[in-house]
From TrEMBL:
Positions of the 6-phosphogluconate dehydrogenase NADP-binding domain: 12-162
NADPH-dependent reductive aminase-like C-terminal domain mapped to chain residues: 167-293
InterPro entries listed in its UniProt record: 6PGD_dom2 (IPR013328), 6PGDH_NADP-bd (IPR006115), HIBADH-related (IPR015815), HIBADH-related_NP60_sf (IPR051265), NAD(P)-bd_dom_sf (IPR036291), RedAm-like_C (IPR048666)
Pfam assignment, any one: NAD_binding_2
Family: Belongs to the HIBADH-related family.
Full protein name: 3-hydroxyisobutyrate dehydrogenase-like beta-hydroxyacid dehydrogenase
One example GO MF annotation: NADP binding
SUPFAM superfamilies listed in its UniProt record: NAD(P)-binding Rossmann-fold domains (SSF51735)
Signal peptide region: none
Keywords for the protein's UniProt record, in alphabetical order: Oxidoreductase
Length: 298
């Protein structure tokens, strides 16, 4: 690995070049930014250097090389342990942490970075590795608004950077919430593929129709968010009772076709619980009330 011999600052440093970190570094390079990299296993950094990156010999050297320091490691403890020896170089830098973790861990690391005189942005890559570098790749950030404004253009090399607010915990909160949202949709998709597959429909043929259905679903999210804010649930999109009956058809049809019914059973149970809680004739967004009741029966 070559060291950062000349003293010219890079635009950005990337520490941790696993699956995600390597894609981040490549996206910065593709956007024309001078990029310094460090990785525990040197071969992965060498591969990036071959693509035009500057290699750093240590995490401290990587931190010193750029005003914007992006870390992407397995967990926050590793981030902290790696950066402690680099602490003296962090003053005046902005640390962007794209490691997955909990809101509490984000607050703690933000506090530590603040103590080093560094700005802090917690972040989450919401589009896997496959879209990194493309405009539709969502990256959520939270923490210092000033740091985000200063480095927004460079962060936009990764995709669509969205600043959620100044609380550093927000990015990981959204990360887990959006993960659950994606899995809710994907679980429904996988069940649907299995169901139409019992009649010989190819998954790709079904997917072409299913993706055309998604704009309707996303339009419901916008409308229902307003209903939830208002605490009023008009039945324009059908009542909880009507949807519970329709979900029962899906459960029954799936069972008849020899499928496991656990995916639609989860949704049916939610609708039944909302109905039992007095929302049977309300619109379906009222199920949020049944979720907010936590461990209570309704
Ligand atoms: N991959 C994705 O699609 C994806 C999507 C969203 C978020 N993320 C998040 O991104 C983060 C990184 O994920 P990844 O998929 O890139 O993981 P990965 O491919 O397993 O890479 C892990 C990286 O961490 C380094 N590392 C591990 N332990 C270390 C230690 N003790 N000291 C120094 N370096 C260490 C590894 O170095 P070596 O090369 O030396 O092993 C490697 O660079 C995770 O928090 C993950 O949840 C990943």
């Amino acid at each position: 690995m070559s060291s950062n011999e000349n003293q010219e600052l890079s635009e950005v440093s990337v520490i941790g070049l696993g699956q995600m970190g390597a894609r981040l570094a490549q996206a910065f390079l593709a956007a024309g930014h001078r990029t310094t990299v460090w990785n525990r296993t040197a071969a992965k950094a060498d591969a990036l250097v071959a693509q035009g990156a500057v290699g750093a010999a240590t995490p401290a050297e990587a931190v010193a090389a750029s005003r914007l320091v992006v870390v992407c490691l397995p967990d926050y403890d590793t981030v902290h342990d790696l950066l402690v020896p680099a602490g003296e170089h962090l003053a005046g830098r902005v640390l962007v942490n794209l490691t997955s973790g909990t809101p509490e861990a984000a607050r703690q690391l933000a506090g530590w970075a603040d103590g080093q005189g560094a700005g802090y942005l917690d972040g989450a890559a919401m589009s896997g590795t496959r879209l990194v570098g493309r405009a539709e790749a969502l990256f959520v950030f939270s923490g210092s608004a000033q740091a985000f404004a200063t480095h927004r253009a460079v962060l936009a090399s990764l995709g669509n950077p969205v600043h959620l607010g100044t609380d550093p915990a927000l990015a990981s909160l959204y990360d887990t919430a959006l993960f659950g949202l994606a899995w809710g949709a994907l679980a429904g998709f996988y069940h649907a593929v299995a169901l139409v597959g019992t009649e010989g429909v190819d998954p790709t043929v079904f997917a072409a129709v299913a993706t055309g259905h998604m704009p309707f679903v996303t339009s419901l999210m916008s409308d229902h968010a307003r209903q939830i804010e208002d605490g009023r649930y008009p039945d324009d999109d059908g009542t909880v009772e009507v949807h519970a009956a329709a979900m029962d058809h899906l459960v029954q049809a799936s069972g008849v076709q020899g499928l496991r019914t656990d995916v639609p059973e989860v949704v049916k149970a939610l609708l039944v619980r909302a109905g039992a809680g007095g929302h049977g004739s309300d619109g379906i967004a009222s199920v949020v009330e049944a979720i907010r009741k936590g461990g209570q029966d309704v």
